[in-house]
Design brief:
With about 300 residues, the protein is α/β, with parallel strands linked by helices. It has nine helices and nine strands. Strands 2-3-1-4-5-6 form a six-stranded mixed beta sheet, sandwiched between helices. A three-stranded mixed beta sheet has the order 7-8-9. Strand 7 and strand 8 form a beta hairpin. About 5% of the residues have low confidence.
Protein backbone atom coordinates (compact mmCIF):
# COMPACT_ATOMS: atom_id res chain seq x y z
CA UNK A 1 0.00 0.00 0.00
CA UNK A 2 1.22 3.47 -0.86
CA UNK A 3 2.16 5.59 2.15
CA UNK A 4 0.28 8.52 0.65
CA UNK A 5 -3.09 6.76 0.72
CA UNK A 6 -5.03 7.69 3.84
CA UNK A 7 -8.52 7.01 5.10
CA UNK A 8 -10.46 7.47 8.27
CA UNK A 9 -13.52 8.76 10.07
CA UNK A 10 -14.13 12.37 11.02
CA UNK A 11 -16.98 13.67 13.12
CA UNK A 12 -18.42 17.17 13.08
CA UNK A 13 -19.72 18.24 16.45
CA UNK A 14 -21.13 21.47 17.80
CA UNK A 15 -24.19 23.27 19.03
CA UNK A 16 -27.36 23.28 16.91
CA UNK A 17 -27.07 25.69 13.97
CA UNK A 18 -23.28 25.85 14.12
CA UNK A 19 -23.27 24.84 10.46
CA UNK A 20 -22.24 21.19 10.66
CA UNK A 21 -24.58 19.91 7.95
CA UNK A 22 -23.86 22.87 5.66
CA UNK A 23 -20.11 22.29 5.96
CA UNK A 24 -20.40 18.55 5.38
CA UNK A 25 -22.59 19.04 2.31
CA UNK A 26 -20.12 21.54 0.89
CA UNK A 27 -17.08 19.35 1.52
CA UNK A 28 -18.71 16.33 -0.09
CA UNK A 29 -20.09 18.41 -2.95
CA UNK A 30 -23.60 17.04 -2.69
CA UNK A 31 -26.57 17.58 -0.43
CA UNK A 32 -26.74 14.72 2.06
CA UNK A 33 -27.66 16.32 5.38
CA UNK A 34 -30.62 18.64 5.60
CA UNK A 35 -30.21 22.18 6.82
CA UNK A 36 -32.41 24.83 8.40
CA UNK A 37 -32.09 27.56 11.01
CA UNK A 38 -34.18 25.59 13.50
CA UNK A 39 -32.82 23.32 16.27
CA UNK A 40 -33.03 19.53 15.93
CA UNK A 41 -32.58 19.68 12.16
CA UNK A 42 -30.10 16.81 12.21
CA UNK A 43 -31.37 13.92 14.33
CA UNK A 44 -29.25 11.00 13.19
CA UNK A 45 -25.60 10.20 12.61
CA UNK A 46 -25.20 10.75 8.89
CA UNK A 47 -22.20 9.40 7.02
CA UNK A 48 -21.00 11.03 3.85
CA UNK A 49 -17.88 10.30 1.86
CA UNK A 50 -15.14 12.41 0.26
CA UNK A 51 -12.71 10.67 -2.07
CA UNK A 52 -9.79 12.06 -4.07
CA UNK A 53 -6.29 11.00 -5.06
CA UNK A 54 -5.18 11.08 -1.40
CA UNK A 55 -7.91 8.51 -0.69
CA UNK A 56 -11.01 8.77 1.52
CA UNK A 57 -12.62 10.74 4.34
CA UNK A 58 -15.81 9.42 5.93
CA UNK A 59 -17.67 12.28 7.59
CA UNK A 60 -20.06 11.53 10.42
CA UNK A 61 -22.47 14.42 10.96
CA UNK A 62 -24.10 14.33 14.37
CA UNK A 63 -27.10 15.99 16.00
CA UNK A 64 -26.37 19.18 17.87
CA UNK A 65 -25.84 18.53 21.58
CA UNK A 66 -28.64 20.00 23.68
CA UNK A 67 -30.38 19.23 26.96
CA UNK A 68 -32.60 16.22 26.26
CA UNK A 69 -36.29 16.94 26.92
CA UNK A 70 -37.72 13.64 25.65
CA UNK A 71 -36.62 10.22 24.43
CA UNK A 72 -35.87 11.55 20.95
CA UNK A 73 -33.63 14.17 22.58
CA UNK A 74 -31.87 11.46 24.57
CA UNK A 75 -31.29 9.52 21.35
CA UNK A 76 -29.80 12.60 19.69
CA UNK A 77 -27.39 13.29 22.56
CA UNK A 78 -26.34 9.62 22.62
CA UNK A 79 -25.76 9.70 18.86
CA UNK A 80 -23.53 12.75 19.11
CA UNK A 81 -21.52 11.71 22.15
CA UNK A 82 -20.98 8.07 21.13
CA UNK A 83 -19.70 9.15 17.73
CA UNK A 84 -16.76 10.98 19.32
CA UNK A 85 -15.21 7.75 20.56
CA UNK A 86 -15.39 6.00 17.18
CA UNK A 87 -13.47 8.39 14.91
CA UNK A 88 -9.93 9.42 13.99
CA UNK A 89 -10.48 13.18 14.21
CA UNK A 90 -13.04 15.58 15.69
CA UNK A 91 -13.99 18.86 14.03
CA UNK A 92 -15.62 21.13 16.60
CA UNK A 93 -17.66 23.84 14.87
CA UNK A 94 -18.50 27.02 16.74
CA UNK A 95 -20.21 30.32 16.07
CA UNK A 96 -17.87 33.32 15.57
CA UNK A 97 -18.46 34.79 19.02
CA UNK A 98 -16.07 35.03 22.00
CA UNK A 99 -19.03 34.48 24.34
CA UNK A 100 -19.03 30.79 25.23
CA UNK A 101 -22.39 29.60 26.51
CA UNK A 102 -23.23 26.61 28.73
CA UNK A 103 -23.93 24.41 25.72
CA UNK A 104 -20.45 24.89 24.29
CA UNK A 105 -18.88 24.49 27.71
CA UNK A 106 -20.60 21.11 28.01
CA UNK A 107 -19.21 20.08 24.61
CA UNK A 108 -15.73 21.26 25.58
CA UNK A 109 -15.81 19.18 28.78
CA UNK A 110 -16.80 16.16 26.66
CA UNK A 111 -14.02 16.85 24.16
CA UNK A 112 -11.41 16.99 26.92
CA UNK A 113 -11.99 13.27 27.47
CA UNK A 114 -11.41 12.12 23.87
CA UNK A 115 -8.16 10.49 22.81
CA UNK A 116 -8.08 11.72 19.20
CA UNK A 117 -7.06 15.12 17.78
CA UNK A 118 -9.64 17.90 18.06
CA UNK A 119 -9.62 20.76 15.54
CA UNK A 120 -11.55 23.91 16.37
CA UNK A 121 -13.40 25.26 13.32
CA UNK A 122 -14.73 28.80 13.60
CA UNK A 123 -17.60 28.96 11.12
CA UNK A 124 -19.51 31.90 9.60
CA UNK A 125 -16.43 34.14 9.46
CA UNK A 126 -18.20 36.08 6.70
CA UNK A 127 -20.37 37.57 9.45
CA UNK A 128 -17.57 39.25 11.42
CA UNK A 129 -14.49 41.37 10.81
CA UNK A 130 -11.18 39.54 10.45
CA UNK A 131 -9.70 41.12 13.58
CA UNK A 132 -12.67 39.85 15.62
CA UNK A 133 -11.69 36.26 14.85
CA UNK A 134 -8.66 36.62 17.13
CA UNK A 135 -10.89 37.23 20.16
CA UNK A 136 -12.88 34.11 19.32
CA UNK A 137 -9.71 32.02 19.03
CA UNK A 138 -8.42 33.45 22.31
CA UNK A 139 -11.66 32.72 24.18
CA UNK A 140 -11.83 29.08 23.10
CA UNK A 141 -8.10 28.49 23.52
CA UNK A 142 -8.42 29.48 27.16
CA UNK A 143 -10.99 26.74 27.63
CA UNK A 144 -9.08 23.92 25.92
CA UNK A 145 -5.89 23.27 24.00
CA UNK A 146 -6.90 22.38 20.43
CA UNK A 147 -4.63 20.59 18.00
CA UNK A 148 -5.38 23.20 15.35
CA UNK A 149 -7.72 26.12 14.67
CA UNK A 150 -9.39 26.75 11.31
CA UNK A 151 -11.64 29.50 10.02
CA UNK A 152 -14.34 28.88 7.40
CA UNK A 153 -17.58 30.05 5.94
CA UNK A 154 -19.43 26.83 5.22
CA UNK A 155 -22.22 28.71 3.47
CA UNK A 156 -19.88 30.54 1.09
CA UNK A 157 -17.29 27.77 0.80
CA UNK A 158 -14.51 30.02 2.09
CA UNK A 159 -11.36 28.14 3.20
CA UNK A 160 -13.12 24.77 3.00
CA UNK A 161 -10.18 23.36 1.01
CA UNK A 162 -8.06 24.03 4.11
CA UNK A 163 -10.41 21.79 6.07
CA UNK A 164 -9.86 18.87 3.68
CA UNK A 165 -6.07 19.37 3.69
CA UNK A 166 -6.03 19.49 7.49
CA UNK A 167 -8.13 16.35 7.83
CA UNK A 168 -5.83 14.33 5.57
CA UNK A 169 -2.83 15.48 7.59
CA UNK A 170 -4.29 13.73 10.66
CA UNK A 171 -5.69 10.56 9.06
CA UNK A 172 -3.84 7.25 9.25
CA UNK A 173 -2.77 5.13 6.32
CA UNK A 174 -5.65 2.84 5.43
CA UNK A 175 -8.02 1.28 2.90
CA UNK A 176 -11.01 2.79 1.15
CA UNK A 177 -14.20 2.00 3.06
CA UNK A 178 -16.60 2.91 0.24
CA UNK A 179 -16.63 2.83 -3.55
CA UNK A 180 -15.15 5.83 -5.35
CA UNK A 181 -18.61 7.00 -6.46
CA UNK A 182 -20.19 6.72 -3.00
CA UNK A 183 -21.28 9.91 -1.25
CA UNK A 184 -23.27 8.45 1.66
CA UNK A 185 -24.30 5.19 3.30
CA UNK A 186 -27.82 6.46 3.99
CA UNK A 187 -30.55 4.49 2.20
CA UNK A 188 -32.24 6.45 -0.58
CA UNK A 189 -35.57 6.33 1.22
CA UNK A 190 -34.01 7.83 4.34
CA UNK A 191 -32.52 10.73 2.35
CA UNK A 192 -35.86 11.40 0.67
CA UNK A 193 -37.65 11.41 4.03
CA UNK A 194 -35.09 13.90 5.34
CA UNK A 195 -35.49 16.16 2.31
CA UNK A 196 -39.23 16.31 2.92
CA UNK A 197 -38.65 17.07 6.60
CA UNK A 198 -36.24 19.86 5.66
CA UNK A 199 -38.87 21.61 3.56
CA UNK A 200 -41.37 21.28 6.39
CA UNK A 201 -38.83 22.73 8.83
CA UNK A 202 -38.33 25.72 6.61
CA UNK A 203 -42.00 26.33 5.85
CA UNK A 204 -43.72 25.72 9.17
CA UNK A 205 -44.12 27.73 12.36
CA UNK A 206 -41.45 27.34 15.03
CA UNK A 207 -43.58 25.28 17.41
CA UNK A 208 -44.44 22.57 14.85
CA UNK A 209 -41.17 21.24 13.31
CA UNK A 210 -39.70 19.77 16.51
CA UNK A 211 -42.64 17.41 16.66
CA UNK A 212 -42.64 16.07 13.11
CA UNK A 213 -41.19 12.99 11.47
CA UNK A 214 -41.47 11.73 7.90
CA UNK A 215 -42.05 8.14 6.82
CA UNK A 216 -41.83 6.91 3.21
CA UNK A 217 -44.86 4.64 2.75
CA UNK A 218 -44.27 3.52 -0.84
CA UNK A 219 -41.66 4.28 -3.48
CA UNK A 220 -41.89 2.64 -6.88
CA UNK A 221 -40.58 3.37 -10.36
CA UNK A 222 -43.15 3.10 -13.14
CA UNK A 223 -42.31 0.45 -15.72
CA UNK A 224 -40.66 1.70 -18.92
CA UNK A 225 -40.64 5.31 -17.71
CA UNK A 226 -38.42 7.73 -15.84
CA UNK A 227 -41.08 8.46 -13.25
CA UNK A 228 -41.04 7.50 -9.59
CA UNK A 229 -44.21 7.48 -7.47
CA UNK A 230 -43.60 8.28 -3.80
CA UNK A 231 -46.17 8.32 -1.01
CA UNK A 232 -44.96 9.81 2.27
CA UNK A 233 -46.53 10.64 5.60
CA UNK A 234 -45.67 13.62 7.77
CA UNK A 235 -46.29 12.65 11.38
CA UNK A 236 -47.03 15.32 13.98
CA UNK A 237 -47.97 15.30 17.66
CA UNK A 238 -51.15 17.41 17.81
CA UNK A 239 -54.38 17.81 15.88
CA UNK A 240 -53.77 21.57 15.75
CA UNK A 241 -50.38 20.92 14.15
CA UNK A 242 -52.00 18.76 11.50
CA UNK A 243 -54.14 21.69 10.43
CA UNK A 244 -51.11 23.96 10.22
CA UNK A 245 -49.15 21.43 8.14
CA UNK A 246 -52.04 20.97 5.71
CA UNK A 247 -52.78 24.69 5.52
CA UNK A 248 -55.77 26.48 4.05
CA UNK A 249 -57.19 24.29 1.31
CA UNK A 250 -54.04 22.20 1.44
CA UNK A 251 -51.77 25.14 0.54
CA UNK A 252 -48.97 24.42 3.06
CA UNK A 253 -48.82 20.70 2.27
CA UNK A 254 -48.69 21.54 -1.44
CA UNK A 255 -45.84 24.00 -0.81
CA UNK A 256 -43.83 21.45 1.17
CA UNK A 257 -44.39 18.80 -1.50
CA UNK A 258 -43.44 21.10 -4.36
CA UNK A 259 -40.18 22.20 -2.72
CA UNK A 260 -39.26 18.65 -1.72
CA UNK A 261 -40.02 17.24 -5.15
CA UNK A 262 -37.44 19.54 -6.75
CA UNK A 263 -34.63 18.26 -4.50
CA UNK A 264 -35.73 14.65 -4.84
CA UNK A 265 -35.78 14.91 -8.64
CA UNK A 266 -32.28 16.38 -8.59
CA UNK A 267 -31.12 13.44 -6.49
CA UNK A 268 -32.76 10.56 -8.38
CA UNK A 269 -32.47 12.10 -11.86
CA UNK A 270 -36.09 11.31 -12.70
CA UNK A 271 -39.53 12.86 -12.59
CA UNK A 272 -41.14 12.40 -9.17
CA UNK A 273 -44.83 12.10 -8.41
CA UNK A 274 -44.92 12.91 -4.69
CA UNK A 275 -48.03 12.52 -2.56
CA UNK A 276 -47.95 13.68 1.06
CA UNK A 277 -50.26 12.73 3.90
CA UNK A 278 -50.44 13.96 7.49
CA UNK A 279 -51.09 11.82 10.57
CA UNK A 280 -51.18 12.58 14.29
CA UNK A 281 -49.21 10.38 16.70
CA UNK A 282 -49.49 12.05 20.07
CA UNK A 283 -46.18 12.39 21.96
CA UNK A 284 -44.32 10.13 19.53
CA UNK A 285 -41.01 11.64 20.65
CA UNK A 286 -41.47 9.97 24.05
CA UNK A 287 -42.35 6.56 22.62
CA UNK A 288 -39.46 4.09 22.29
CA UNK A 289 -41.45 2.15 19.71
CA UNK A 290 -42.30 5.14 17.53
CA UNK A 291 -38.89 6.84 17.55
CA UNK A 292 -37.35 3.50 16.56
CA UNK A 293 -40.01 3.10 13.88
CA UNK A 294 -39.06 6.48 12.44
CA UNK A 295 -35.41 5.48 12.17
CA UNK A 296 -33.99 6.65 15.50
CA UNK A 297 -32.81 3.33 16.94
CA UNK A 298 -30.50 3.66 19.98
CA UNK A 299 -29.39 0.03 19.61
CA UNK A 300 -27.72 0.94 16.30
CA UNK A 301 -25.58 3.71 17.75
Amino acid sequence: MSEELKSGFVTLIGRPNAGKSTLMNHLVGQKIAITSKKPQTTRNRIRSVFTDEREQIVFVDTPGITNAKNKLGEYMVDAAEKTISDVDLVLYLVEPSPKIGPGDRHIIETLKTVKVPVVLVINKIDKIQRDEVLSVIDAYSREMEFDQVLQVSALRGTYTDDVIDTIFSYLPEGPMYYDVEAVTDMPERAIIAELIREKALRALDDEVPHGIAVAIDTMKKRKNTKIIDIDATIVCERDSHKGIIIGKKGSMLKKIGSLAREDIEDMVGMQVNLKLWVKVKKDWRDSDFLIKNFGYDRSEL
